[in-house]
């Protein structure tokens, strides 16, 4: 019997590759899920970006490489990514490893990319290399073990001479790296690499363009420094565009119960591409004699104290002829003697612009009134996510917990051989005792 066990162990050693047996599954369409800020209308510049997430429940399953090959289990990244003048891509990342249902190991790691090619800058510490033809700095920060609920804040601050990477994780806080790269974060337009200069705070696989199966329950938000204050981003989308890591099973939606203080809710579900805000409100119009009764609402709730314009056609085009402000019930009354008019709502923070046309042929005159919501929906549904950049986290060693998909690895073989040696020694001792 002992000989059979030894032979079996030796066979396992002979057939096992240098690590583990690889398993794969069909390639899955997935996206980096969370919240991102990208403006197709204008370019924003800022010196500080902040992502905040509160996690009440989380499970991290298997992750796979882009070709569907099994990578690991229980590991996931949360990335705060931003572009510096469209030339440098800064990633402030936290890597999660699930220990049990409530405990997680969290490791800070950063990537800083030179999208023009290899770095010529000298850095005080970290691993500088060339990855996918681009210069990349990778530095591994501190590790903390935390339990649910988890409160995390990742932030990056830049000035004319330096870029700092910081964190707050369940009471642990600090700046763990400062790079000699100066400038401003640019949001809007496209980088040298051809990807949007977006600001993204998103969940994804543990690196290498991988995707992970996971779910998260909680909330998150994204902030930029404007006029000396941190402000919620004016445009929010459910997916990121720059990073190639992605996730299956996390749904990102907007909570707009307070239109002036929105936030993102995270839950288990489908990874839908959607505009979180601004949203398009309902504009209902009733024309009676010279009165135009206007009601503005969202999800059946009135929107008070909003400016509404009534525009009529003149020789030079549409001109504002009447204005009003919605009352506490979302109503206002405008006046006109013409049956040909446009009621226009210009929008306000989380509310996109919208309009009502009294006669169809006026649509030719309002073609330049484009809703921010419609523009963002068009952008997100037609974007080619294959342009994303594969993150590279260097020598970070995840605490891998192999699933039953992995039949053999050397750690398991060591346990098997130790067990065999124990059996053999016990048999010999018993023999001598006799």
Q: Whole-number radius of gyration?
A: 28 Å
Distance between the termini: 20 Å
Proportion in helices: 10-25%
Largest sheet: 10 strands, mixed
Model regions low in confidence, pLDDT < 50 over at least 5 residues? 1-22, 398-434
Overall structural domain count = 2
Q: Count the E strands.
A: 29
Would you tell me the structural class of the helices and strands? mainly beta
How would the blueprint of this fold be written?
Blueprint: H1 2-15, E1 33-37, E2 44-46, E3 48-64, E4 70-73, E5 75-84, E6 88-98, E7 103-114, E8 127-131, E9 134-147, E10 150-158, E11 163-169, E12 172-179, E13 185-187, E14 199-204, E15 211-226, E16 229-232, E17 236-239, E18 246-248, E19 250-255, E20 263-268, E21 275-277, E22 282-288, E23 291-298, E24 301-302, E25 307-314, E26 317-325, E27 331-335, E28 341-345, E29 354-357, H2 372-382, H3 410-433
Parallel strand pairs: 15-18
Antiparallel strand pairs: 1-14, 1-17, 2-13, 3-4, 3-10, 3-15, 5-6, 5-14, 6-7, 7-9, 8-9, 10-11, 11-12, 15-16, 15-20, 17-21, 19-20, 22-23, 23-24, 23-27, 25-26, 25-28, 28-29
Helix pairs in contact: 1-3
